[in-house]
Design goal:
- This protein has two helices and two strands.
- The protein is an alpha+beta fold.
- The chain has one domain.
- The protein has a two-stranded antiparallel ribbon with strand order 1-2.
Amino acid sequence: MTDNDERCLNCDRSSDKIPLLRLKYAGRESWICPQCLPTLIHKPERIEAVAGEWIDQKVKFDED
């Protein structure tokens, strides 16, 4: 994963703007910022929806 890919999966901010925490979801590496971490804990369905779209886009890109 390159620095350009290091963006919060919820708010899309980069590590240039805010610290990011690395996590794994559905076999893929993702990033989340501390501000969005409560969303991951208390409303995981929102993160799953966003991460699912992100994973689908990455899979399509990897197939091309």
